[in-house]
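Take a look at the protein record below and tell me what you see:
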Amino acid sequence: TFHFVVLEIRALLKGICYLAEEIFHLQSRHHGSFWKALSACFSLSWHGPMLLICGSAYVALLDGDGQPLGLHLGMASLCELLVLALGLH
């Protein structure tokens, strides 16, 4: 389940990076509509429920290794940002 959570975090971070780029092109590409830019960067119809399901399963199966959940997700997010930044995906 942690692997699926990380994959969904990757999709979320990728969407955030795309949105940061698309904000500069709101007028030319999306006719000033932030919602069109948002829907172009995130496919929430698929990734939203998947992130919720995987995140819930991960929390339910967390074996209590003594580390806080935020640390696990933070480290996964940092690793995925590094992968995206280095183009290793």
